[in-house]
């Protein structure tokens, strides 16, 4: 029998530490040493394995009209308790003062994005989602050659909501092939993790996820607990109230009349997925290059990358450090001081910026210095450098201290379990690649991103065992040298580290078979480095991990049991259209890739 909820709808907490210990074995097996590459002072993420610089052809990319930055105030997306009803609807939204209002999607009465939902650890909010979406703002970009996409998506957009990072029942997880359309309502019983965390909710419809998130169907979902309460008197001493601000950021492209544009190059026929839309304008909380007035004190920013393709390397224009205090699934043990932060699509980071030493009138930009993909460069796209601007006022802020620790002391949650030496039940190799797919003319006619050389609709997918501890070696063998962002549903995991490997020799010795046949050769004989430790801000709980090109990224996953979860994760359930479904999915969260075969099912089976 599963765990019983109390009268308030909260479940008994199963500590994440228990998830690692419950395997009955120690911590992560590898015979190779770990190389931390640590240096004194604030941490700066390494620049190796980034995209090469190539010459571009300017007329092969579309561009937004010239827009003046930092003239619109940053919107503060409303914070609400878990609602009984959440309506998704089309709207008109103004992205910049010099652009006309344009078609958009939003949740909960907003014209772009959704409200920040604030709820409690261990709770099971019941939310009825209503689809009132009519004509899709990106309707001309619907690619009907993709699995799940059809002409109907242009006029009656599909919707299925995924609460990203939550341990949901299969029926409430937002299975991508089970959307519902205009006029229908679906009730979800979401399940919150047992500790404070920064989740998000978004559309997950097969074949159109990239378009609907881009149009606005996403929002923050903040889980609170007795330590991270969201109040000024929280035991951790974290900024709260007006000093805590969720940020949703995404690079976008605009037509001169203010409409969102998704086709970024004339090199690909209209209505076909291009493999990645690189915008030339940064939008934060629905506004182009916003400005934010700040007091002279510490602020907490809950950063979510809703980018469809690009990674960002965030830093402050004056070179000053800031602090990362949490990742996807919750708080780190202690703040990590950094000069830059690399964030991939769907990742979330919890950061503190201290403006206490700034002078009134100072203006500091949040900037992005990540090189975009060489493919984007080749068609003339460039890095979007500006993100937003902070304008420092004269008033002293309420919070003037950065905490020393976040876990392990009195009135704090337990420290994170250390990893490094466990015997695991299984090591899985998963390959990330681009291969020919003649039967499905999706990207440039015959190419598809994929996992393990398999399409989504295959019976040859992963069946991890409940209660098992696994290492997943994510081999980025992509010949286009792109990084990928891999997301596993149901679980939070830990990043063990990364190896360099000889991709050329790996591919030469193990040429991929025709698309549709599993291809997962071990990378062990092709490793060319010791194991690099993850970035210090990647050492907490994660549900999405960046997989750089020419590297093998290892993660440690504990698959929970039905008893621990309080439900059977392998239960058969009826989809929203009556179909018989089973299991979860894992995929690349570069949404152009996700929509183009880079997604697989998985079933968490009983022993």
Automatic annotation (TrEMBL):
Transmembrane segments: none
GO molecular function terms attached to this record: copper ion binding; oxidoreductase activity
Domain Plastocyanin-like: 158-226, 289-357, 452-604
Protein name: Putative multicopper oxidase
Family per similarity comment: Belongs to the multicopper oxidase family.
PROSITE patterns referenced in this protein's UniProt entry, alphabetically: TAT (PS51318)
Cross-referenced InterPro entries: Cu-oxidase-like_N, Cu-oxidase_2nd, Cu-oxidase_C, Cu-oxidase_fam, Cupredoxin, TAT_signal
Taxonomic source organism: Gordonia rhizosphera NBRC 16068
Pfam families linked to this entry: Cu-oxidase, Cu-oxidase_2, Cu-oxidase_3
